[in-house]
Every structure is written in C-alpha cells, then in structure tokens.
C-alpha cells in the first residue's frame, strides 16, 4: 500500500488507531518531503523529510492552516491549498513553470522558486499534489510531495548562460544579440516606437595586440566591455558582436538619445587611459556608428544593422575616436524627430 493509499485509509477510518498510527509512521519515514492538508486546509501530516527541507518542525505546523509560511515570506497558497480551494486556475501565475496535469484526474505538478524563510535558503522545488476523495467523490485531503531540484535548476541556468554569454567579457554573445534584435524589432513595430543600434569598434586593436600580446588584448576588451555596460539602461543590451567589436541595442531610443549614449561610451573608454603604444593615439579609443529605425513590416532589422555598420565605417574613415550617423539616417530622423 503506497503513501497516498495509507492517507486514504487514515482519512476514511479516523478511529482505527492501529491503521492511523501505521499511516503516520509510513509518512514520517518517507525520504521524500511530504505533507497532508485536510479538506479545510489544516495540516494533518508533516513528515521528517519536510522538516529537514523547510526547517520547520511538525509541532509548529500541524493543526495550522498556514503551511505556506514554511515556503514563502509573503502570503500565498501552496499547491495543495489551490486544489482544496478550487483555485487551480491560478497555478500558472504562481509557479515558474506552468502546472501540468498528471495522468490521473485532479493530480497536478508544478515547479518554482521558494523563499524557505525558516531554512534561510532559497530552493527550487518540484511539487506534486494528489487529492484523496471518499467513495462518493468528496474531497477528504490532499497530499503534497516535494523534490528539491535547486542543483539541477542552477546547472540549467549556468548552461543557458553559457549559451547566451561571451566567455571573455561576460556580455551577451552574438547569438543572444541576434535573438534580442529580432525580438526588439517586433516589439518596436507593435508599439510604434523607435529602435536604435550602436556598433562600437576598438580603434587600432591589431596594433594593441602586437604590442601587448593576446593576454593584454583580452584585458583591454574586458575593461572596455565594462565601460560600455556602465552606460546601459535596464532594457538595453550590450553584446560582444565579434573580435573587438561590440553592439548595443537601445529600445525606444531616438537617434538623438542614441547619439548621447554613444558619446558617453566614447568618453568613458577614453577616460580608461589604456596606453596604446602601437597607434598614433596615446590611449585606446573607440569609434561608434549609430542608427535608428522606425520598425515597419516592409523592413527588417538587418537594414538597421547595415545602417549602423555604414555609420561605423564613416567614423573610422573620418579619423577614429568619434561617433557618426550615416547621412541618410540623419536626414530621415531629422524629419521624423525634428532634429
């Protein structure tokens, strides 16, 4: 007889002391954290594994209707509470991954982060609930079992980070940039907002590498990456586009605003005062091309990228250590924004 069946026996025959004691003993000895709420939401079982996971003893929880306090700082129902209160439609809003029905009717599974205030550590838990009904189908209790999947979740996050982050600078990588640019283009089109892009290239970087070696070059790129990142708003994205080139996506930013950000980046890099003995300039500098588009169905983000690239080429051609807009972009945006 499994644990759910034992609780069924406990609920159906509350006066059968021997069966009740056996059911409690079985649940107490389960290695899997588990607790049981009765039809009113009152905790009637809180096993030892659950005590170890939450840091809350059964003495504190049994007989109360606030088992949620063991998992969250702010009031919110457990998955078992949602079943008892017939609020399962709220599960998707309360858990990181949407709840999915199990094979048996009424059984639910969900995953999410829990504060675990008593244990003093945040945990990612997989939760399964099983309702227990009497012969007439009336709900008698709900069993909730828990699995600590924090290590697995952290490993998943680390892998996802590796897939989207540049290993040297910690910035977004080219893949993340491409995906974000496409997503921001679609959003700009829906919301009818401008989307700006900066292409940032380190001036005379080959000469820098020749003098300071690849280790020195890596350090240079890391410091420039940090300087660029410091000028970003929450919704902006800075990525290492490739080699010594960086790209900055500025959602809902006019060309004038993009030019201001670009100039701040240029000044911040210059203020690093990284010596560059292999170039005419005394210190490492960057050239920046800026472009802005009003997203439309007949266009695509590759055109914005091409325009920013052309502006960068112009900045290089004009002597480096400067920002530039293509003449075509300047003309179009001056009409659109009255610049």
Write the layout of secondary structure elements.
Layout: H1 3-12, H2 17-29, E1 34-38, E2 43-46, H3 48-54, H4 58-61, H5 79-84, H6 91-94, E3 97-101, E4 108-114, E5 123-133, E6 139-148, H7 150-164, H8 174-191, E7 194-202, H9 205-229, E8 237-242, E9 245-251, H10 255-271, E10 286-294, H11 301-317, E11 323-325, H12 327-337
Parallel strand pairs: 10-11
Antiparallel strand pairs: 1-2, 1-6, 3-4, 4-5, 5-6, 7-9, 7-10, 8-9
Helix pairs in contact: 1-2
CATH architecture of the largest domain: 2-Layer Sandwich
Shape: elongated
Q: What structural class do the secondary elements suggest?
A: alpha+beta
Largest beta-sheet details: 6 strands, antiparallel
Strand segment tally = 11
Task: Identify low-pLDDT runs.
Answer: 1-17, 332-339
Q: Approximately what portion of the residues adopt beta-strand conformation?
A: 15-25%
Strand order within the widest sheet?
2-1-6-5-4-3
CATH topology of the largest domain: Alpha-Beta Plaits
* Total number of helices: 12
Estimated helix fraction: 40-55%
CATH superfamily of the largest domain: Reverse transcriptase/Diguanylate cyclase domain
Domain PAC: 108-161
Organism: Pseudoduganella dura
Pfam family, one: PAS
Domain GGDEF: 193-328
